[in-house]
Design a protein that fits this description.
The complex is a heterodimer of chains A (about 250) and B (about 325). With about 250 residues, chain A is mainly alpha-helical. Chain A has one domain (about 5-245): Ferritin, core subunit, four-helix bundle (Ferritin, Up-down Bundle), CATH 1.20.1260.10. Chain A contains eleven helices and no strands. Chain A has helices at about 5-25, 35-65, 70-75, 85-90, 95-115, 120-150, 155-165, 170-175, 180-185, 195-210, 230-245. In chain A, helix 2 (about 35-65) packs antiparallel against helix 6 (about 120-150), helix 5 (about 95-115) packs antiparallel against helix 6 and helix 5 packs across helix 7. The two termini of chain A are about 35 Å apart. Chain B has about 325 residues and is mainly alpha-helical. Chain B contains 13 helices and two strands; from the N terminus they run ααααααααααββααα. Chain B has helices at about 20-30, 45-65, 65-70, 80-105, 110-120, 135-155, 160-190, 195-215, 225-230, 240-255, 280-290, 295-310, 310-330, and strands spanning about 265-270, 275. In chain B, strand 1 and strand 2 form a beta hairpin. The model of chain B has no long low-confidence stretch (mean pLDDT about 95). The chains are: A mainly alpha (about 250), B mainly alpha (about 325). Chains A and B meet through helix 1, helix 2, helix 3, helix 6 and helix 7 of A and helix 3, helix 4, helix 7, helix 12 and helix 13 of B. The complex binds fe (ii) ion (FE2) (2 copies).
């Protein structure tokens, strides 16, 4: 992989994580447990789609083959997507959605805090711009984890089940791809392993407040960064991509 | 419309025995003078009841209205369209919130209002009982339904009840944005490939009549209009608003090369307005009664969201109570 290809791949990962999670959150719109929760999930979805647009636009420029953000979002097949397995997981109940959001946004906040110092000015700029909203997502999710964990017996159990579903996907977030080595040493990409301590600390503090037991991580499941996804992503894309695929000549 | 009178029976018109004539007179005078009535002010019971019904219907329409458009969020054809649609549906949820809050100032609660929606007792705009079948329906809703909402809500910014009027000021700003983005979707489709143009025309064919029905029954069949106009709860009649909407919308359709599906539609030089064909009021009343094509789906979706979310709302309350107890303990 050339340095340019590695940067393309890295930027795609950033964009795909935001895009796919936004798509999942959009499924909640109109169906959340209360109007306020509906609005805040939509808010997160909106922020993420904004981030996805910025990263995918940049990825297209890096690639230099004339693909824009829409082309990348709507005309790639499942094995070309580079998002983590976590973000493509089905929403489940509100407990699982919150568990997924807490894990992802806590990771993403730590990531952007580093990426805003990237030697690549575009990545640095996008991360700096997105940090504030991502901090809000992480705080929102943490507040819900506490509410659900500390709330009732049922909510405690449900949010615990939600986390149980997600633990196997945590490792992938903190694992660099072999092709990243050059980018990391050049100060372009963030070494995700370095973010783990901050993640673990936030998790421990939030879980203590939520009266939840710390995880016993199962064997990790990975593959998303290489395009080996869960069965869920194909269905998500079938829905998301159907119009541009059915009418390839149309402009919307 | 979002707030139209959906009852065929007039509400009680006369003052109730318990209402002192001098208070009533002073109230009527303030309203006639275009003053705002505020939550703490004295008001006739019938005024309060009519407002609660109207504002809660309006609020329900906003949140039920999230469903037909929400149906296309995951399938919007570009990132920009997806973001705009998400933001639009979110705005509608926000409108629901302001309106529930405005209704609560009249002595009802959001839970009571939602119970009435879920049990089928409360109504919401008939328009949301029609399905969104293609992407063009998202354009048609923004253009026609938000367009109609603006017609109805602009005058409500001067409605006599202060909290309702102020909610409308915030809402109207956003509705004009929704109308423009809806029209822009239609414009793009109408200028697109033959399939896209056909999609746009088909959407207009299906949404036109339900949209002009939204303004509610004709004036001669709208028993509460006179009282509502006198109380400045309504500022223009259903037929007046409908006519305005037709007059504004027909040229817009023509400008993008779409045809309004009404063979009787023609410009009336003498009136300076469009004449339009007969509206199928039987369909309207059937939809009001809950027999719209997707009425069952809409109520089911709202009820399910509410029931499936019960544990979350309970958890939030339980956590808040525990926290309050802990704080109290610390304070002792
Ligand atoms: Fe609205
Ligand atoms: Fe609207």
């Amino acid at each position: 992989m050339t340095a340019n290809e590695a940067l393309f791949d890295y930027t795609l990962r950033l964009g795909d994580d935001a895009l796919i999670l936004s798509q999942r959150l959009g499924e909640w719109c109109g169906h959340a447990p209360a109007l306020e929760a509906d609005l805040s999930l939509t808010n997160v979805a909106l922020d993420l789609i904004g981030q996805a647009t910025l990263f995918l636009t940049y990825a297209g420029e890096i690639e230099g083959k004339g693909r824009d953000a829409d082309k990348l979002a709507f005309h790639r097949d499942v094995n070309k997507f580079r998002n983590s397995l976590l973000v493509e997981q089905p929403n489940g109940d509100f407990g699982r959605t919150i568990a997924r959001q807490f894990i992802f946004s806590t990771y993403q906040r730590a990531l952007y805090q580093e990426l805003m110092r990237s030697s690549d000015p575009r990545l640095a700029e996008i991360a700096a711009k997105a940090l504030k909203e991502t901090t809000y997502h992480a705080e929102l999710a943490a507040e819900w984890v506490v509410r659900l964990g500390d709330g009732t017996e049922e909510s405690h159990e449900r949010v615990e089940d939600g986390f149980e579903w997600c633990w196997r996907f945590v490792e992938e977030l903190f694992t660099a791809e072999p092709a990243d080595a050059g980018l990391i040493s050049a100060g372009i990409a963030v070494d995700p392993a370095k973010l783990r301590a901050s993640f673990d600390a936030t998790l421990a503090a939030t879980f203590a407040e939520a009266t939840l037991a710390l995880p016993k991580y199962p064997r990790p499941v990975t593959g998303g960064r290489k395009g080996h996804h869960s069965e869920h992503l194909g269905h998500l894309l079938a829905e998301m991509q159907f119009l541009p695929r059915a009418y390839p000549d149309a402009v919307w | 419309m979002y707030t139209t009178e959906m009852s065929k029976n007039p509400t009680r018109q006369g003052p109730s025995a318990a209402e002192p004539p001098e208070l009533l007179e002073a109230f009527e005078a303030r309203v006639a003078n275009d003053e705002f009535i505020e939550p703490k002010d004295w008001m006739p019971e019938a005024y309060r009841k009519t407002l609660i019904r109207q504002i809660s219907q309006h609020a329900h329409s906003e949140i039920v209205g999230m469903l037909p458009e929400g149906n296309w969020i995951t399938r919007a054809p570009s990132l920009r369209r997806k973001a705009v649609l998400l933001a639009k549906v979110q705005d509608e949820g926000g409108h629901g919130l302001y309106l529930y809050s405005a209704a609560e100032t009249l002595g009802t609660s959001r839970d009571e209002m939602l119970d009435a929606l879920h049990s089928g007792k409360a109504k919401y705009s008939t328009i949301f009982n029609y399905p969104t079948l293609t992407w063009a329906d998202i354009g048609a809703i923004g253009w026609l339904v938000d367009g109609a909402a603006i017609m109805n809500q602009v005058p409500l910014q001067r409605t006599s009840y202060g909290p309702y009027a102020r909610a409308m000021v915030r809402v109207c700003k956003e509705e004009s944005f929704h109308q423009r983005q809806g029209f822009e979707i239609m414009m793009r489709l109408a200028a697109g490939t033959p399939e896209q143009k056909a999609m746009a025309q088909d959407a207009l064919n299906r949404w036109w009549w339900p949209s002009i029905m939204m303004f509610g029954p004709p004036d001669e069949n709208s028993p509460n209009t006179a009282q509502s106009v006198r109380w400045r709860i309504k500022r223009e009649t259903n037929d007046e608003l409908r006519q305005k909407f037709v007059d504004v919308t027909v040229p817009q359709a023509e400008s993008i090369g779409l045809t309004v599906p009404d063979k009787d539609l023609k410009w009336n030089e003498a009136r300076g307005q469009y004449d339009y064909g007969a509206i199928d009021w039987e369909e309207f009343w059937a939809v009001v009664k809950g027999e719209g094509p997707v009425a069952k789906e809409r109520v089911k979706a709202r009820t399910e969201a509410w029931e499936k979310g019960a544990w979350v709302r309970e958890a939030a309350l339980a956590h808040a109570a525990k926290q309050a107890a802990r704080r109290q303990k610390e304070a002792v």
